[in-house]
Amino acid sequence: MPALLQLVLATLVIYLYGIESGAFLKIFILATVGFAIHAVLPMAYRLPFFTLLSIGGAFLVFVPTDALWLLVSGSILIGLANLPISLKARSIVLIVVAAILAGARAGLMAAPWSSAVWPILGSMFMFRLVLYLMAAKADPADQRPWWSLAYFFMLPNLVFPLFPVVDYQTFRRTYYDKDEAGIYEVGLLWIARGLVHLLLYRFVYHNLITDAESVVTLGDLAQFMLATLLLYLRVSGQFHLIVGLLHLFGFRLPETHKLYLLASSFTELWRRINIYWTDFMMKAVFYPSYFRVKDRGPKAALVISTMIVFTVTWLLHSYQWFWLRGGFPLTPQDIVFWGILFAFVVVGGLRELNAAKKPRRIAGHQGWNRTRGLQTAITFTMFYVLWSLWSTESVNLWLWMLGSAANVDVKGVILVTSCFVTMLVLGGLDWKASSRPRPAWLEMALRPTTRTTAPLLLLLALAQPAAQAAVPERMAGAIRSLQTTGLNARDLTLQHRGYYEQLDARAQLDAAVTADGRKRDASWQTLDQLGVLRDRRDLVLRDLLPSRSTMWNGKTFTTNRWGMRDQDYPQAKPPDTLRIAILGPSHVMGNNVADGVVFESLVEKRLNSEFTYGPYRHFEILNFGVDGHSLPQQIALLEDRVFAFSPDVVIATHYKDNRDMTEGFALRVSSQGIAVPDQALQQLLSGAGLADMGYRGLPIPYAFARRAAGTIGIDSRMPYGEARSRARRVANDILTHTFMRFDTVTRARGIVPLVLALNVVLDDVPSEIPLRSAIDQAGLPVIDLFGVFPAERRPELRVAPWDDHPNAEGHRIVADALYRELTAFLSSGVLERAHSHRTSN
Amino acid sequence: MENTRDVVRRFILENFLPGEDPKNLTDDTELKESGILDSLSTLKLVTFLEEQFKVQLEASDLDAGNLSSVASIANLVAAKSGGR
Asked: Which of A128, A245, A399, B50 has the highest count of CB atoms within 10 angstroms of its CB?
């Protein structure tokens, strides 16, 4: 009964925090109900019941046809593994069938099921078939139908494609091999621990993750490395949940992770992090290899077998990727990562082999051990540096990022020191200390029931709005981030994450995108596909071709003879006309809305019909918006073309992603060697080291290394990651400079500059305009429309669920707000002041 | 005269648990789950068993079930030596 109560608490936590997917909640509820029945069934019926529950679960997760295909194809594979022929012949048959399936997975032939089935089918069979056949070799009579079905169709596997490699013999051997209440108790404890891990992961994901390109100081570097390592909490959380759930049905499987961050050597770390994988490698690769070469002596045999294990591990990670996600990635950083890890593990292994007898304890208290603590702190530090390599896009970017350690800051010193000291203290403790007498309250607190119930109750309390209202806002924000189920800001721009992130989180996030209906329609055209854009070899980089008329996703798209997405205007300003030129990116140009409904067009109509101002009889707004234009491109276009139209007012558009777009601008200008007539901008690019970016030769990080390579005749270039990082560091300076230039070049001509702060229809609108102080410092007036789209109406104001540009109604809302602000701005007498300034000069 | 279990127990105590109270290592103590036997100590144990009991072990004999306790190791030795 207490177990059932704890399961209900866990279900509530999963529901309130939106843990994993909706399918997981269904499976967890099914497991809870199933556990209540299973626990009271006679022992003989329990295994069939669990198997049928797992099979039934497939229909909760998949549409019926997919569920049937999963079960039928899985059953065929199990049948083939049990054919009444020799083990060798069975293995050959299975390899042939696996090759056919691999062909279908690779898209060489059509599969009768949807793409959702592949990761689960792959996960169920890609490794377990090997262990199943190995068990068949050891004991041919061991493969009874219920056991086989239960082993491959394990209930949690339906929702967790990344699954621990459960050994068949262990699966069988540990089934109800101890007191069942104790098995359930451990299972519940691991479920609670898994939930805590997943929520900690979420906290890290939403609050601590940064990009390798954004790393500038030691503090950034330490945060990046720690956060990427802590993302592994997702794997350990899921594995705890999986094995915890299996415990509820009597499978007393061993722990999947064991205090791995407190390992005192790489050899120990290898044994403790993902223990099932290590055991799988030991059983399937290490021992067989060792026995084949043990005649060469223990040291040589150890080195050879370990090398084989790491090579196979590296390849199997790509093999796993193939079945779960498609593709077979083999990257240089994988080779370096596994190579270094192999070296550390083999050195540790040889030391252990030679070492004197190592004192261990079955139980008992050895006190704090300084040497062990120091070894743990060093291992942890080295591991999180190494892990960051595996989580960075390229070796070159990682090497470049490491250079940030030279920029020592307070945050960096605090982070590095506190981590080291924490690991020193925790690593030196004897975690097996159980025989030491403890006070009664501590005994109570450490009981599994307490350790299961207390965090669940705490999490439930924290999920209550009243509790969040009662704590400081910063803490409430952190708690809310635990309940956030979407992508973090960087993943929204599809940044690279670590192997497991890409493999598991990304796969599930892709699914979430589909579930939200935000997956792009295959027929949806991008502007690049329309043939209306052209590249330029100047700072504008690209603009619209003149006099084009086409249909874009069902909407008219027309450019005038001057290459504006607008009606035709003469270049010479007509008399008595107030002419406004607007520059900006896609949402100013009007992505995926028809001609004439873009907000500038609506404002122009309204000005002409409703607004009276000074001597002007007509108002014109010329739309110079071009898809993808950053602020520097807007100002380059202003100087290149707009002044010829004699505008009275020029509006440049500033938006949330302007910094990212400016980063891209700097990269493109530098990589293509485009001439930069603006000396100050040229100095910024040179100062950032982008001037010698180059585009041919061997990518080598750091200018000094490239120079050194040059002296020995190696043609080199800056790696793309380093260039991106350098561009990111200078992007805000470029923007600040551009605001100043915008003000200077317009006012010099007696033109009124104006900044329009306007985004596409975002969910996470910044509370402040980025670089507002730089805009104010330049003396530029601002019309702030960052909050123009009401939060509750945002989904209906987008052109499509997968495209955040405003639709016709969104443009109407912008037009209403801009008309109001613009007329107030003009009425304030800015034009008169500009004209008098021009006259006086 | 020591039986197989005693010999195995003594080897484990001397090599993997120096200083441990022998009473804590029973015939059924979990060797793998408690961290006493890892991959390298397993190799040392295998070498010892082969030399001490003149048996020939194979990789497939190193299943966790065969080496999970002193008792199971003694059973493995008995099976390999044909019940000697």
From this structure: A245
